[in-house]
Amino acid sequence: MDFGHDARTVHLLGELGSFMDEFVYPAEPVLAEQLADPGRDPWRIPPVIGELRAAAKARGLWNLFLPGELGAGLTNLQYAPLAELTGRSVLLAPAAVNCAAPDTGNMELLAQFGSAEQREQWLRPLLDGDIRSAFAMTEPDVASSDATNITTRIERDGDEYVVNGRKWYITGAMNPDCRIFIVMGKTDPDADVRRQQSMILVPRDTPGVRVLRGMRVFGYEDADHGGHAEILFEDVRVPAANLIGEEGSGFAIAQARLGPGRIHHCMRALGMAERALELTCRRVNSRVAFGRPLADQGVVQDWIAEARVRIEQARLLVLKTAWLMDTVGNRGAHTEIQAIKIAVPSTVEWILDKAVQAHGAAGVSQDTALAQLWAGNRTLRLADGPDEVHKRSLARRELKKYR
Amino acid sequence: MDFGHDARTVHLLGELGSFMDEFVYPAEPVLAEQLADPGRDPWRIPPVIGELRAAAKARGLWNLFLPGELGAGLTNLQYAPLAELTGRSVLLAPAAVNCAAPDTGNMELLAQFGSAEQREQWLRPLLDGDIRSAFAMTEPDVASSDATNITTRIERDGDEYVVNGRKWYITGAMNPDCRIFIVMGKTDPDADVRRQQSMILVPRDTPGVRVLRGMRVFGYEDADHGGHAEILFEDVRVPAANLIGEEGSGFAIAQARLGPGRIHHCMRALGMAERALELTCRRVNSRVAFGRPLADQGVVQDWIAEARVRIEQARLLVLKTAWLMDTVGNRGAHTEIQAIKIAVPSTVEWILDKAVQAHGAAGVSQDTALAQLWAGNRTLRLADGPDEVHKRSLARRELKKYR
Amino acid sequence: MDFGHDARTVHLLGELGSFMDEFVYPAEPVLAEQLADPGRDPWRIPPVIGELRAAAKARGLWNLFLPGELGAGLTNLQYAPLAELTGRSVLLAPAAVNCAAPDTGNMELLAQFGSAEQREQWLRPLLDGDIRSAFAMTEPDVASSDATNITTRIERDGDEYVVNGRKWYITGAMNPDCRIFIVMGKTDPDADVRRQQSMILVPRDTPGVRVLRGMRVFGYEDADHGGHAEILFEDVRVPAANLIGEEGSGFAIAQARLGPGRIHHCMRALGMAERALELTCRRVNSRVAFGRPLADQGVVQDWIAEARVRIEQARLLVLKTAWLMDTVGNRGAHTEIQAIKIAVPSTVEWILDKAVQAHGAAGVSQDTALAQLWAGNRTLRLADGPDEVHKRSLARRELKKYR
Amino acid sequence: MDFGHDARTVHLLGELGSFMDEFVYPAEPVLAEQLADPGRDPWRIPPVIGELRAAAKARGLWNLFLPGELGAGLTNLQYAPLAELTGRSVLLAPAAVNCAAPDTGNMELLAQFGSAEQREQWLRPLLDGDIRSAFAMTEPDVASSDATNITTRIERDGDEYVVNGRKWYITGAMNPDCRIFIVMGKTDPDADVRRQQSMILVPRDTPGVRVLRGMRVFGYEDADHGGHAEILFEDVRVPAANLIGEEGSGFAIAQARLGPGRIHHCMRALGMAERALELTCRRVNSRVAFGRPLADQGVVQDWIAEARVRIEQARLLVLKTAWLMDTVGNRGAHTEIQAIKIAVPSTVEWILDKAVQAHGAAGVSQDTALAQLWAGNRTLRLADGPDEVHKRSLARRELKKYR
């Protein structure tokens, strides 16, 4: 269980750190300005992000998340501190280095399960950063944490599949550059519970695809990264070759996709927490009330100490999980992946709440990123299975040891 | 300490309950639709609210908050359950019955401290519902919980006062029908700490008043009730007669205004919590995952029981506070007002968080009110003095008993 | 919902307050001394308690808990502040005024369900304070929160009943003056679930009764009030007339007994919390570390404010519950009784924890009562049904409203 | 940052695990029996512990805690899992392998700072397990977390030092085999704050030493390991050579002693938590209420999942701290030592609380170890500086980074 940074990680951390300092942090006010422009195309990604992407790509800071030859080829343990660093400016940095969800998970999925044609047609431009993608699993009318609830149908009709269903909270899909959707649905509702679903590639411009509206997250449209779309699929026909893997493999592919996705979220969330803690310290050092800086208040000090102690613990658990994924595989790291999925968003939520409180009205406003970070992180407690589902599952495995 | 409903309260509760059922709840989807209309004037109050106001006024459900002959003449204890009831549809009902903040506090202030002319010119149309108002106290650059930090200047120049300063989070002020601002500033920075401030009436259309932008609350613009403006006052000149009370009385007037304002917020917050609990129960009774309704999950039951137990306690403390304000006055109820300011928003936040979680993605979306309620309630932990300031003050009084 | 003190309550509060000041508080160090005496009979109630009882009885401060003509005839609402006051010195005051559990519940039970002979033989000396009693329900080998689990048998054999079973945590039963046990067991294991149990009077000196040992509570033997016995009943024969009520009525009688028992515990617990808060304030006002009194520490102030706010809420809920019990009966107050059973011990535990922390090593020692109070209060979270059982039950009623 | 077990650790874990299984766990009921024997010498360590010590020593499982040639020579990282394992039976195993506090800290202190004579006279028999020792720092009348408050005097008088003062909670000192006390006091109250204190060796049988009484911890006397004594030192004369190090070095020695002491407590506490979690799982798997095992209750599952997630995080932070102490020294690990001192006892307290709750009455009784473990662990939140002091200190270092 060695969590140390090897030479490559140290090198990349240096490169990425310089990139953050020179490009990303200075771009934060630019992004805010561009998003506030009333005349802008509301769902087009602001140009500053494109500029950052070009700069990052030129420096080789690109596709860091992707193992194997198609990407940077890093282990999870190598990637962890880099992902955390991007989390410090989470609206900009992950997209800048082509490591933003949901593209990351989609690229991994295509790299692992896509056919040669699928990889050529969709993975290639995603890796090059020419297009963006979305992952369409969650449905509005059912508890999607239970995959058997999914109602979208994918039916074979000759050389085609016909997709019918309604999805929502499809992150990134409001962005017109999001060209391809990976849609989860049932090909065989009568099969065994874990063999009913399949995944299929649906290009955005396929007839019958209707991107209805942007769903909000505590008031945020998240237009900076393509929002969260509600999408109606009405008799959408795609070639049979668009199916990913074989019929009935959707559940297994989803499971494979989710492990890395969860840990990437957790890595970035730690960066958010570190940034929030730094902002809090700076704020309370400089803000004066009742004759002394807020930093002298015992309760504020208590928050800061707790934040530091909690971050340290959460990070170590993320690193252990990364190390396990690298050494025994995602399946062997099942308990730990669940553990960080449970622990990290709660920890980060607590820290962001205190950061908001320390900033007063500015903390809930558009003038700091804190409230938006809070909202984004809050969804992690329910996205991809609410905490309660993961806790129950983890507990049952623990209980089995003593039965 | 009698918290029972007297005949008048029972009667009004019946009337208001019918009004909620017939008018307010059915108007909720209408409001959502009107707010979502892309072509609308972004800060104009949606027309459905005007219609509700007309209906409520016609039924005599009007100015219920205001004691004395100018209003409904209710005690705090009589008003408490009515205000709670309006909290169940907090984006509509308080405005419908002309009991929405900040107008309520402003009307009370004018009724109590305004000159005959001020009352005639501004209180009258506010009571009639013809205009709206704002209270401009918080400033962006200082910790406003410490009133000595306020930097806005109100300087006498002949028959006029000249106002210079920057305010933000001025609720309601984005609404063009918000015609009058009550501005807090320093008339004498060298006076004793509690005699430096004054309040002055500044009409919206006075030269030098610049309403800069709408501040957001966790992404929400709160356009339904006029948003939260940042306002710049640059050499704004108003007649000397616009000063409320005498020079140096601003701090005392603010204190007088805040007690009722705090308890009104708490009353409404209880209604929000009751509504959220009802929505949660309905949701978990109907939503199925892993083969049974969410309502069968032990953790969900735990939330519901806790929510009920916490609401009961919080409500009783609000009622005791109302009773004390009625019987020994706001000053005599100082500790209790502080206690509910501390306790109620936290309690309601906890309940709203669980309601969001029980609703999954819908809970953070625009399709339920929960996330917006959460955001609005979250600000109560820092608006009008953060919890930490109130706790310290309350603790000091407790400690003094044993010194 | 009137929680005010009527004239009789005011009068009794004055009398009891004087008694506390003159007799009870000064007796606290005496009790500690007597309990520490290595030569004493380990389970005999220390003599100081007998002296206090005599003094209280002489002043008419006696059986305050008991409604009707046999006792002081107070309502629950009248009794509440008196019981709270006794909770301030909970090892002495409740026993001093013959209002200590489990005698209170046993006396109520006998008054309500006992035959004339039972009342004469056992209730009379209990009311006079000549003997003490115990209530034997909990069993070591099963989850007693589910009454159907009870395994003790009460079998009819001619003119007698034969009792066999093992009970534990039978409070007060180590005291040799505890002369009578009310034993719960099954007379008909095949009957409907709620008609299987009966209660029967078993005198301590009946052959076959073996008081095995004193159970501890976090190390405490609670010898001051007769400890908590493990008792074996082996072929214990008592006259058939010792059965309380009819066969199969045990469950119903237990339910009737528990409501008042729960609220009495809560009332006293509030007194414990008030005392702990007072001790904490005194301690932190006087204790100096790092150059200033602990009272100046922000975190300590936070504790004190929270404690005050939580106590106020908990007390009001207890008062509402008392008022409901008085006006609509124990059954009508079912939800509220459950609510205080859930809320009050947790609240008081939190406060006692902070009081311990503020006292440092003294807080966990025998030199303050705090740790013992903490332990006693901790058991309330599991005695008479753990919180989890009560929450589930309360939640189900809430959920039913919306089904 | 490599937390893996090296070959020696793996080997020792195997040996110690076998010893636990064969000797320690079977001895737990024996210890309980011996402690319950009414005829025993109340403060003499029960004989079963001596037998375990002999067995452990024979197997070379001895002085594992002590780095260097005098002990097992393990690093902190090597020792961590071994210490955790002993924590699973914390009343027996640490003493069995001569790794129990406060002897461990005292041996380290003597090894590091003792003169050759001091080591020969006191360290040797401690290492051999022939005697026990105590560390006398805490005083009853002051906040000892602030070392400047210490009032005990150590005054030079010719060839002797004269010690006067009162200490309490001197763990182990009630045990008559505890032959030597290390006493902290002031040799020069006028010196610089960190140069006032010295430490001196005071044999138990020195005239003027009065072991007054055993202090309790939530009712527990902790007689199994020598209790916690209050000791009066009245004109106690010892040779000047008994001073440890030089005059004024007491503060520095204390600091050096505390780091390892804190981490050892945390390591063992993790073992307590693991044991409690195992007991909880076994209990809820087997206990039935309302027709199904407690393990099926959602709230119980939530506890178990939370417990596992929290333990994992806490353990990793302890391991990181151990690794830091090994690689950059105790001073370099200052923040992390403080972090685990804050985090681990709270985490373990939470888990023990749930374990108690899951066990019902048995959980607070003498029939499981849970309540005693809870009490012992609770003191860690205030012993050796309350959490609040450590948090403040940690926060200040964090705040300094951004000033």
What's the short version?
The structure is a homotetramer of 403-residue chains. The first copy, chain A, has 403 residues and is of the alpha+beta class.
Layout of helices and strands:
The structure is a homotetramer of 403-residue chains.
Chain A: H1 7-36, H2 47-58, H3 76-87, H4 93-96, H5 103-113, H6 116-128, E1 132-136, E2 153-157, E3 160-171, E4 178-186, E5 197-203, E6 209-215, E7 228-239, E8 243-244, H7 250-286, E9 288-289, E10 292-293, H8 298-332, H9 334-359, H10 361-364, H11 370-379, H12 387-400
Parallel strand pairs in A: 1-4
Antiparallel strand pairs in A: 2-3, 3-7, 4-5, 5-8, 6-7, 9-10
Helix pairs in contact in A: 1-2, 1-3, 3-7, 5-6, 5-7, 7-8, 7-9, 8-9, 9-11, 9-12
Keywords (chains A, B, C, D): FAD, Flavoprotein, Oxidoreductase
Domain Acyl-CoA oxidase/dehydrogenase middle (chains A, B, C, D): 134-236
InterPro entries (chains A, B, C, D): Acyl-CoA_dehydrogenase, Acyl-CoA_Oxase/DH_mid-dom, Acyl-CoA_Oxase/DH_mid-dom_sf, AcylCo_DH-like_C, AcylCo_DH/oxidase_C, AcylCoA_DH/ox_N, AcylCoA_DH/ox_N_sf, AcylCoA_DH/oxidase_NM_dom_sf
